[in-house]
Design brief:
mainly alpha; 521 residues; 2 domains; Alpha-Beta Plaits; single chain; 4 strands; Growth Hormone, Chain: A; 4-stranded antiparallel β-sheet; 69% helix
Length: 521
């Protein structure tokens, strides 16, 4: 129901702008103003989704968008809305979606098992695109009969069912042994995790490129309806509906396609298919021809974006999934916002047809780029917490926020195993930094060259505990391989140190008494 309202509102806003301004760029900016906030605010929203109660975030976002949509409806009804005012309202609604989306997407993994997550993402896309097949047409009818204000009012009412459902949803409470990570630190942890995950970086590049080029269809569709097909708001709604029908077809073939083909082949095919669809849209002069192009593009849209989404979710542990999804959405919707503006400028100074044809060339290039930055497979990673770390008993009366903490781990490595050790410790370095370590280094003893020491810093003792809680089962294999190379007695020795840059007073390093009758040193 909420998706239906959002699509009706999108038709109302896009068509209203065609009557408020003759500029093709302003019409395209309606799409950009709706997606730009997702690029700007998603990272903060992702950090909030990982740190706070997702249900409360979802409820807050829904209520905010309801109020903004109601204000937009009132402004349109009393005819006090100008082009920039309309963009301001759509930007505000997009800001609500930026807050909502990471918590919504991350909540799927809280509700269904890992095995069913791909199907859940597909079902979510199905729900949206079912509404895309009827919502725009309904929006066109409402705008044609009662004006844009009725579309905005419909959208405001559509938030109520979701708000009620979220109000009644009672997710299981999470028990956290560590205090909540500060927002700035959480943002840095999310960006660090993404930067140290090459597989995810490939997803970001490809999704940004796809969003940039594919946004041409959505941004220029009001102009296609008005100028190319000489139609009305209903024509625009029908075009969006055909795109939605194609997307439903993409959802239905999704699981079958994924079972037969590798991820990169699916993504490359989606790029090429979307390019073919918008070429047909650009050259067609009848709504039936445009419908064929849009249905092809809609199927490609779902195949690409749902695969990107699932890849991010299944390649990311739960502690950082909200931030990972937010960075993915920043890349995708940032590309869409930039593309919507650029294709609008091209349409204004050249033509709608030229803009769509240029976008198709970018899409074909995006398919070929997969030769160098192709998507890998994601099914084999076990990202459940390892939960084997036990907090050590300290003899120093250390506070949770004391630091910086220096960790050194000693390995005894035979000369013939050095090459294998260096390859494994390189992978270990990436995991350490990904999970919060700083200033990682590898040391070799000059007098005892078999002795190697891995060294890194964390800001506080709490951060050290948090660092170890982030270790996943998929990390265990490389660590066990390191243990197998260790030739010393027992396990590698771990030194946990607190660093001081100047000579402290004795009382800065008190010792806990081990026995009540033992003196302190």
């Amino acid at each position: 129901m909420s998706n239906l309202g959002g699509l009706v509102q999108m038709v109302g806003a896009g068509w209203l702008m065609t009557s408020l301004s003759d500029s093709s760029g302003m019409v395209a900016l309606v799409q950009a103003s709706n997606t730009l906030p997702i690029m700007v605010f998603s990272l903060i929203a992702g950090a909030l989704a990982d740190s706070y109660d997702r249900r409360r975030i979802l409820l807050s976002a829904q209520i905010f968008m309801l109020l903004v949509s109601a204000a937009l409806a009132v402004s349109a009804y009393f005819d006090i809305l100008g082009p920039w005012g309309l963009l301001g309202f759509t930007f505000a609604i997009g800001s609500g979606m930026a807050l909502y989306n990471p918590s919504w997407q991350a909540s799927m993994g809280d509700i269904v098992s890992r095995q069913n997550l791909s199907a859940a993402v597909g079902l979510n896309a199905m729900g949206f695109n079912l509404m895309r097949s009827v919502g725009p047409a309904l929006g066109g009818i409402l705008v044609a009969i009662a004006g844009a204000a009725s579309a905005f009012a419909f959208n405001a009412v559509s938030y109520l069912p979701t708000t009620l459902a979220l109000w009644r949803w009672k997710p299981p409470a999470k028990s956290e042994s560590l205090p909540r990570e500060p927002l700035g630190q959480a943002l840095g942890a999310g960006l660090r995790y993404m930067s140290m995950s090459p597989h995810l970086l490939k997803v970001l590049v490809r999704s940004a490129m796809f969003g940039f080029a594919a946004s041409s269809a959505m941004a220029l569709m009001p102009l296609v309806a008005r100028d190319v097909l000489q139609g009305t708001a209903l024509t625009y709604g029908l075009l969006l509906g055909f795109f939605g029908l194609g997307a439903i077809g993409g959802v239905l073939m999704n699981s079958r396609v994924r079972s037969k083909y590798a991820n990169e082949r699916i993504v490359a095919a989606a790029f090429v298919a979307f390019a073919a669809g918008i070429v047909i849209l650009a050259l067609g002069r009848h709504i039936a021809v445009s419908a064929v192009g849009l249905m092809i593009a809609g199927a490609a849209w779902v195949l690409a974006l749902s695969l990107f989404n699932v890849t991010v979710q299944l390649s990311t542990p739960r502690w950082v999934v909200g931030r990972a999804l937010s960075v993915y959405q920043m890349a995708t919707f940032g590309g869409m916002a930039l593309g919507a503006w650029i294709w609008g400028v091209v349409a204004e100074y050249q033509s709608v047809t030229t803009a769509l044809l240029l976008a198709s060339i970018v899409l074909v290039a995006g398919a070929f780029i997969g030769r160098w930055i192709g998507l890998g497979e994601y099914g084999s990673l076990d990202l459940d917490p390892l939960n084997t770390f036990a907090e050590p008993q300290l003899r120093i009366d250390l506070r949770a926020r004391s630091g910086p903490i220096v960790i050194m781990i000693d390995y005894v490595i035979a000369e013939e195993d050095v090459d294998e050790f260096l390859a494994l410790i390189h992978r270990r370095r990436r995991v350490r930094i990904r999970d919060g370590a700083r200033h990682w280094s590898l040391l070799r003893d000059l007098e005892n060259p078999d002795l190697w020491s891995e060294r890194f810093h964390v800001a506080t003792w709490n951060d050290y505990l948090r660092h170890n809680s982030r270790r996943t089962k998929s990390d265990l294999e490389s660590f066990e391989a390191l243990l197998a190379l260790h030739r010393g007695p027992g396990r590698p020795r771990v030194h946990r140190l607190i660093e001081r840059q100047s000579v402290p007073r004795h009382e800065d390093f008190p010792l806990k008494p081990v026995q009540p009758d033992m003196p302190q040193h």
